[in-house]
Specification:
Layout (H helix, E strand, L loop, with lengths): L14 H5 L9 E5 L6 H13 L13 H7 L6 E4 L27 H5 L13 H9 L11 E5 L7 H12 L5 E7 L7 H4 L3 E4 L5 H12 L9 H10 L4 H13 L5 H16 L7 H8 L4 H19 L11 H10 L2 H15 L8 H14 L4
Parallel strand pairs: 1-4, 1-5, 2-3, 3-4
Helix pairs in contact: 5-6, 8-10, 11-12, 11-13, 12-16, 13-14, 13-15, 15-16
Amino acid sequence: MLQNSSAKKIAPWLEPVWDSINLTAFPNAVLIHGQSGIGKFEFSIELAKGLLCEASSGAKPCNQCEACRWFDSGNHPDFIALVPETHRKLLPHGDFNSEVDSPKKSKPSQTDNEGDAPEKKEKKSISIEDARSAIEGLTIGSHRGGNRVILVYPLEMLRADSANTLLKSLEEPPKNTIFILLADRLDRVLPTIRSRCRLLSAPRPDRANGLHWLRSKLNTISDLKISDSDVESIYDEQGGAPYAVLDSLIARHNKDEKDELTIAIQASRYLLQAMSQGSRINWLDAADKTQKARYSVMLATMQRWASDLQSSKQMGSPRYYPKHEDAIRVLAQQARLPKLLRFWRSLIQARRHENHPLATRIQLEVLLSQYQQVFED
């Protein structure tokens, strides 16, 4: 079993998974799956470091050897991370701060002279070029003669061509090469990829432990003032995912209006206010005010709200939005159950294509219009 030398860097609820791992008999590919925002990525980074650690004995990672120091600096030659541009900031010490992300300055363009140039949107998928480049480099031996680790996150964001490239390597894995694959939604991973990996399920913490961990992290952030009731409310709204809640609160504290999380928080709050109106919802306005947020976040908000409505309709209690319990109970009495169930099925269908919406605003308008009809005869 792997000794728990990294307990402080790994979420407490993931420590049993960590303790079950044996680095001396590790498979060539693992697929770690679980809810987004529960610490899977941080877990996988520590796992990659442990697999590359060159300590001859004792717990790994040792955090002392040259390999560990290289890893911490983001310069280990045998660690390859395949992540979208939107996730590169999560890697150790800006692993991708290179000329690829910071192109050399060119001559000032017309936009430079007249004003700020429009910001380039970060890609949310892993390009086929990145996947091929990583895979082609596996034909040569590892730089330090030990393991080579390929981290892919989030796996379900791989384009079809990139997924096929990865599949070929999983079918005939190069010597001493280990794949660590992460997925928020296991149902969206190709069955052929799943079948070639050892599956590791990452559990979500219970509410008490999750809130305790979250408060301990918030206490280390100076000038961040937030009441316990607000922490609990946001915790429930985020589906009990502590890391997601922490990121949300930090983004709100920094008041970065362009930050994706800040946009998502504001849009989710506006969407909840709109949906609490039931049949009086102004769905055109709601779609317009929330279209800039990530579509998947808006769908998750609607799905949780619909789940609470269904629970209340069946004499249960709201799970995600207890703060809105009074409004939910009133709406549940007004809702037509067959229409509510059809709306729920529409949300499930929409989530299957949430990463490739044809037009976010139009999709939101269609769904919110259908939501309004839930309360009409």
